[in-house]
Amino acid sequence: AGMLGAVVTAGSASTTSGAAGDFSLLVDMAANETLPVSAVYTDGQDNYAGGPVSVTFDGTNTAVSIVLVLSKKKGTLVTISGTVTSTNGAGVNGASVTGGGQTATTDASGNFTLAPFENEEGKPVVISASTFNADGDPVGGSASVTPTSDAVSVAIAIDMQSDLEDELDSLIDEIEDELDSLGIDYDALIAEFNSLVIELDGLAGDFRTQADYLAQRIRELGMGVCESGDAAYALRAAGTQLDFYDFTLSALPGIYAQLTLAQATDPTIDLGNVESEFGRTVGQGEAIAGQYAGVLGAYNAYECDEDAANTETGDNADDNADPDDIDSDAAGGGGVEVCGDGIDNDKDGEIDECDAGCCDKNVQVIVSDCGTAADDIFLISIDGADVGVTPKGAANTFNVELSPGVHSIRVTCLDDGGDPLGSDIGTACVSVVVFGTDAGIGGGEMSIAYGGSGTVSFNVPEGPAMTTVPQVFNGSSLQHLE
Description:
This protein has helices spanning 163-182, 186-221, 229-249, 252-265, 274-300, 306-312, 328-331, 465-468; strands at 7-10, 13-16, 34-42, 46-56, 69-73, 76-86, 96-99, 102-105, 111-113, 117-119, 125-132, 138-145, 151-158, 363-369, 377-382, 385-389, 395-400, 405-415, 425-434, 439-441, 445-449, 453-460, 472-474, 479-480.
């Protein structure tokens, strides 16, 4: 079919074709001169071209036929967006992305969007991404996409692994191969692991028996604890149990590591509660170490000769000392206040009061387990210094000399009574009396997670104010209620 509006050119002359595609050009030519004739056409969407056709002048007018063919389709505007990730699936931040003559930079999640550009229909576009790995080496990746719409998404993966990571992967592969060749006995490892956990729990139980007994004897005897053979024995026994615990625990990480590697070689292996039990026994060790530090601090507060006690108690200590052997009636309750036991023996509404000769200090702090289960242990610190622990499920009293001003009591939960540790909440009540005043702190409960702490602040008045200013604090909300 004829094409209207095609531009026909011969030498310096040009014209436009008519409705039937016809055209006429008047060109000066010498005899036997040859001249190329060509035509182009654009319909607003596509480009067409024809020729050139060579015409040789023979002295007469010459008819020329030119066939126009589609030479190039005009492109459409395309917007390409996507994500650059490392081979482990994490987004790559700050990578440079290029494609279609446009450039973009990935965000923290590896996302990018290239500015719109014109692309020929059906023409593929290569999108490239480049950055640097942890070693500072250039790394990159690319993807090819053929746009079928004006908005296209593409994903590019880059191997970001450094040489060190490659070496570690190679080492792990070697270890796994070695484990396969050795044929690790998984069942035997599990049995050994469980056996050690049972032994550790037994040692922890024995330790708590001695430590709780020692704490109770310290509260009962006060200064007299230095002369007590059974208290000295309990201190020595608790320390020995703690040493045994640490020694036994040191074997657990190696077995745990072998089990983890065994699972890496065989994903079907089920470690069950090995991981949680490993964490629990480590946490239990930290808890009893803290409890030992507390009772040791309370024992040393009376300036007992700890070394002498450790070497001289063989003939005096009761090797079968047990907290159940304590006669609670003998400890108090005969109408006479027993100093340091945290009990109102004379039934006057006060505990270990100074007017009963129980202290030469100006402040008394009483911390107790006031939860319904009575199974918590707390470490007590005053102004940042540890002063002792509470027996499991019971109270302890601390008489201290404090200067006028604001002071703080920190209560840390060493044992929440849960099985395993950390599965329950400790409940502590704090009471404080500033002697010489009618000041008091207490009554409220503090809920403290295993390993966590709660703090109570209070003020010791100065001068005459000590006998005239009533001060009441709430130990749970930690607010001055005046």
